[in-house]
User: Fold this.
Amino acid sequence: MSGASLLTFARGPAFEVALAMLIFGMVWRLVGILALRRSRDYSEGRKTAGWVSGLRVIFSRSWPQAEFRERVLHWDIVSYLFHLGYAVAILGYLPHILLIRNLTGLRWPGLPGGAIAFAAGIAAASLLALLGHRLTSPVLRKLSNFDDYFSWFIAFVPLITGLMAYYNIGDSYQMVLGLHILSGDILFAWLPFGKLMHVILFAFSRGKTGAVYGRRGAAI
Amino acid sequence: MSATTIDASRPLPAADKQGTVSDPERLSRALESFLADFGATAALYLEACVHCGQCAEACHYYVQTGDPKYTPIWKIEPFKQAYKRLMGPFSPFYRLFGLKKAVTTGELERWQELIYDSCTMCGRCTLVCPMGIDIPFLVLAARHGMQAAGLVPHDLWEATDRAEREGSPLGATRQVLKERLAWLADENAVEIPLDREQADVLVTVSSIEVMKYPQSIVALARVMKHIGASWTFRSDGYEATNFGMLAGDRKGQKDATMRLVNAAVAIRANTVILPECGHAYQAFRWAGANIYGKPLPFRALHISEFLAEEIGAGRLKLKTDSRSMTFHDPCQIARRGGVVEAPRVVFRALGADLREMNANPSLNWCCGGGGGVVSIHRADALRHRVFHLKMQQVEDTGADLLVSSCSNCRLTFDDGQAYFHWDKTAHSLLELVAGNLAEKH
Ligand code: SF4
Ligand code: SF4
Assistant:
């Protein structure tokens, strides 16, 4: 396949299929979880509005409590570098913004290319560090399954191909760009099916626990 | 159904396997129970985990041993595996392509020590998990399946079975209770009402107190007399420990809960006081109404809450005891129960020099005896290792007196104290209060 036709494919049918899978998959998974049985809590809450605490925990759990910092903060920081770098690269790059504008009508100013490349570089480096951690920590090795490695890979490839396209590395720019877009398509398509879905689920599980502990008046 | 694959390197004694049913039958009972517990909350937790491993860093078992098998979320792996294969939104694919293997009885047997021996359901991991997953909730659900399969550690099972048959896991039967109360009343010249037909307050007890710390009961009687409460014990509803809950026995849990509810309703009590026992509080204060199926028609208070309330109302007056003290917050009462302020109200009323532990009350270390673990004897060595963390935390405060409000913690402290030849004894908050009642004029 030539670079040009790959590009057309990645931008056209592949993108559409990916978007459909993204939306359908997310809805399917969320409904599949939330439609399961829920039991009513008849206990008399100490604080009646548990949901206030639920909402708070969605945000507050973004940073570890003092007691845990010594043991977890360093990896939290690496993970933040990845998430923030990734978010900047996706949402700050002009071509991405144009794509989003075409889809939704929303728009915002982009960042200079150098800043994007820097953010993507940070994201890629931290992702590599996280992989190293996963491969060497006994706890993570025990927990890790196919999804952990596959999702890592699916998240990593768009970063690398994006950087390659930006720095014009590789024989054919069109081919590299085509691969970048295709890898982005695959990321979208895969997102609802594996652990990447935590981008949505984190709010629900934090909120649930926050609400339960909150109505008991327990610190959370 | 696949055949049993028992880990030949470490066979589990038959006593940790109840009944005589076949392995496939055990498995199907476990799965049936798991299915009943796969509600939206469990699903959300099981789906949200990102395998970051941070929960390990909060768990005393992992912190003390460095063994990755003690990673909290790993402890419920078979439950998670069954969920993904049988119930998750993509379960048909998992089954079709064999992406998740079916759980086996052998696997459940191997997990017994993780689900029971090495989780006190203390909830410390819940507070670190970036996804906010409440692991004890999942452990409890996993225990339901294990109990249904007859795969409970034998000593925990025996205690549960006894509680179901005799009304108490430790032999504090109705008859024993009656005799004990009469003897304690006599011996200490204090009135201990039993089986009054009407009283405002139903007091309950942990059989650990009846059998091991009977002075707690005397202390309670003195406090009740001091404040002039209308109260009674009831021989048809006194045991507040709930081993059914700890073992994962839904029926046992329900029966234990309903005995208290019925007794309280019968005497038209407006308040039920739960004893110094962490899981009793959890089982009755937070799970009780859900077992009853509607809001409880009375208040359920931990004894420390009751003491704080009476101090606040000016009915409970204390003498000063200015010794330096530290307080061990029982996990099920503080971290998972929301009672943190009440004991501190008591310390202030005593004018005690309270030296808090280095972690905030909701994050302090578990004593290592909760979740039924203290009754599982093969887990003793592991329990002593985690107790060491607690001991250090207490030592670091430099306080002269160690106080707690859970007789199960107290039992664990006593055992740890003996094991480590430690010079500190855990005291009961209630007994401390009873020993410092101000004279009433
Ligand atoms: S509840 Fe406590 S003992 Fe159980 S896994 Fe979590 S931290 Fe460990
Ligand atoms: S901390 Fe939470 S998200 Fe991370 S592995 Fe443990 S349960 Fe899963």
